Amino acid sequence: MNGLPAEVLLATDGSPDAALATRVASDLCSRAGSALRVVHVGQDISDYVRHFEAPEEYAFLFADEARELLEREVRSIERRGCAVAEARLELGDPVEEIVDLAEDLENGLIVVGSRGLGPVELLVLGSVAEGVVHRAPCPVLVVRGGEGCWPPSEIVVGDDGSEEAARAGDLAARIGGLFGSEATLVRGLPRPPRRLDDARTREDEHRSGQKEALRRRASELARSLARPPRNVARVGDAAALILDEAGASRGTLIAVGRRGAGAGDRGRGAVTMPLLGSVSTKVLRAAPGPVLVYPQDA
């Protein structure tokens, strides 16, 4: 399937954010030929019913409402002309149930909605989207930004030289290729040291090497895109650089790896590169538009 996901797992809860994720997942599956699987995780109140000796009918009512919600979502997807390969109703913790189902995906991608309030301090920590991103065994596309966020007009890829960052870039480029998106490849460089001249020379050589590596990486991604990506290699915090390139546009898809590590930070005393492991969380919490996160062990 040319590097695109064979299966997409859409997690929905009937909210406006989930409705946007439904539109994105349907569109992506229709264009990529991916099988779409849908899950809704309803509230399991069986323990509550037993503990408070409430009528057992309460549990059945909650389950019926959850089933009706799932059926509405499936009908909505089918009206968009996209087939649903499987619809699952689960009861319990949303993060646990979604992650468990993702274990069975073949070359899979999870799509989930999120409000995305912008500044880091305004995002509610512990959200379902963030929990799924941190625990998922496959890449996760967190959808936010309203109707204007999809299809993405631009792709911004955070690159630190790690395998997971490379895979995030590959998948993002292939998604962008479906829509003719522009692309920008971003790499943060270490700050110049206040050291002796020979050390500064080695630092300059290292930074020059990183810029050349970024150019090679851009050439690789260009194969999936309508136009070659721009290269941005600057000194500074990686998350800030990525978010700065994305700007305030909700139609920009950001792609990063999770727990990424460049080769330069493994040796004692070596020049370190900004790690995208922590960057992925910062970007996820602050980005105004959709974010694609690719885990290290996928």
TrEMBL record:
- Gene3D superfamilies recorded: HUPs (3.40.50.620)
Domain UspA positions: 8-144, 155-295
Q: Which stretches does the entry tag as region Disordered?
A: 188-215
Instruction: Give start-end positions of Basic and acidic residues composition bias.
Output: 194-215
The record's section on SUPFAM superfamilies has:
Adenine nucleotide alpha hydrolases-like
Family (UniProt) = Belongs to the universal stress protein A family.
Protein name as catalogued? UspA domain-containing protein
State the organism of origin. Rubrobacter marinus
